[in-house]
Amino acid sequence: MGDDKNKQGETWPLPKFRFEVDFGTEFKGVAFQEVSGMDVENQIIEYRNSNSKLFSTMKMPGIVKYGNVTMKRGIFVNDNTFWDWHKQITMNTIKRQTVVIKLLDEKGDVTMQWELSNAWPTKITSTDLKSDGNEVAIDTLEIAHEQITIKTGE
Questions:
Q1: In the CATH hierarchy, which fold is given to the domain comprising 4-39+67-152?
Q2: Which SS3 state, helix, strand or coil, does residue 87 take?
Q3: Which of 150, 146, 143 is nearest to 70 (CA)?
Q4: Which residues pair with 42 in a beta bridge?
Q5: What Cα–Cα distance (Å) separates residue 143 from each residue in 79, 118, 126?
Q6: Which of 104, 113, 116, 149 could form a disulfide with 18 if both were Cys (CB 3.0 to 4.6 A apart)?
Q7: Where are the domains of the chain?
Q8: What is the pLDDT of residues 75-94, one digit of tens each?
Q9: Is the pTM of this model over 0.85?
Q10: CA distance linking residue 26 with residue 84, whole number of Å
Q11: In 3D, which of 121, 154, 152 has the Cα closest to residue 139?
Q12: Has residue 1 got a pLDDT over 50?
């Protein structure tokens, strides 16, 4: 009956609830509750020739700017992985890594992936604590990076 995998991707949008994150070679398939901020923006350069007859500027694409990626996940006993990574920051010295965010299909195959180059943790926010709450404790990790590359499949 043909290749159903390609037909499904063309007919229906991909669901976003099954994903995993790889941090370098040490941590693969890390589960997160939420990943957001995977955006890219070109700054605008406005220019006007001195001999232009139009009283307006031309707009040209400028430097590319990547937003920080925010990741939220549950706190686990004896897991200080991201806190340890963040502690390595000292006066412009940090262990930069390639971070790969993978969107998975129902079989666990990669349908799309976002690769963050030279990524490092810029901020960690720990959970709030409430004596009357029953929610899961969540850490929030904000990652700065220098480039995002999008690929389909693996």
A1: Pnp Oxidase; Chain A (2.30.110)
A2: helix
A3: 143
A4: 64
A5: 18, 10, 15
A6: 104
A7: 4-39+67-152
A8: 888 888 888 888 888 767 78
A9: no
A10: 13
A11: 121
A12: no
